[in-house]
Design goal:
Blueprint (H helix, E strand, L loop, with lengths): L14 H27 L3 H22 L4 H25 L3 E10 L4 E10 L8 H30 L17 E2 L6 E2 L18 E8 L5 E8 L6 E6 L2
Parallel strand pairs: 5-7
Antiparallel strand pairs: 1-2, 3-4, 5-6
Helix pairs in contact: 1-2, 1-4, 3-4
Length: about 240
């Protein structure tokens, strides 16, 4: 396999991670906690839970001198952070020119109802829209930056290890079992079954005619079947 499915450390944690990178990870924990609280204030509790879980993962990696930090965990955390950064950045680009709010009203009777939807475009930051609106805008700006910082720290600590998760192991045996080629050769593909001895054709049986000469002058022919000859053989045997 290319990636070992195990959370155990792939080797000793480099000293540069324990002495230098650890301070960057402390900053990541603070930023993720800030992002979690900010998302809850902005009204997105689900996003707040996700970011708090990510902060807990980083804390788990750093306990007891980064003993739980492995290349596999760094790879998975970095992949998740990079995808989150990408989608948050797309959402930010789509509303950076202004955010839209809609309000619908219904008019008319029971038989004739008219629905009027009013769409208003507000600036990205608008003090008139209240605290929650501006908190949402702030989180939309902060989230891609924090996810990018987390991805960078994963990349930095991952490259500090001397090994790699993508070392391809050699095959235990040849992929194809090749025995000769061309006319008269025998080429077998990988996984092909060997022909059984019973399936091999036996040489055609031949008949050997033995002529026995007896003492009284009479002759007697005795046919004998043999499997190791390819033609009919006639032999003469005299008995006194």
């Amino acid at each position: 396999m290319l990636i070992p499915m195990s959370a155990d450390p792939s080797g000793p944690v480099p000293e540069v991670v324990k002495t230098v990178h650890v301070y960057g990870w402390y900053v990541i924990i603070f930023l993720l906690s800030f992002l979690s609280v900010g998302e809850c204030i902005a009204g997105d509790a689900f996003a707040g839970i996700i970011f708090s879980i990510m902060a807990g993962i980083v804390v788990f990696l750093l306990v007891d001198g980064c003993k739980n930090m492995s290349m596999y965990c760094l790879f998975m955390l970095g992949t998740m952070s990079s995808f989150q950064c990408f989608f948050d950045l797309l959402g930010l680009i789509s509303v950076v020119g202004g955010r839209e709010t809609s309000e619908s009203t219904m008019q008319g009777t029971d038989k004739d109802v008219t629905v009027i939807t009013r769409i208003t475009v507000h600036p990205f930051f608008d003090p008139k829209m209240g605290q929650q609106y501006n908190a949402q805008s702030s989180m939309m700006v902060a989230s891609p930056g924090i996810m990018l910082a987390c991805t960078f720290m994963c990349y930095l600590s991952y490259n500090a290890f001397s090994d790699s998760l993508f070392d391809v192991e050699e095959e235990a045996g040849p992929l194809f079992n090749y025995r000769g080629g061309g006319p008269g050769g025998n080429s077998l593909a990988y996984g092909a079954n060997q022909p059984s001895p019973r399936s091999q054709r036996r040489p055609a049986s031949s008949r050997e005619l033995v002529i026995v000469c007896r003492a009284d002058g009479e002759t007697e022919s005795v046919p004998v079947l043999k499997h190791d000859a390819s033609c009919c053989v006639v032999s003469l045997k005299c008995i006194d």
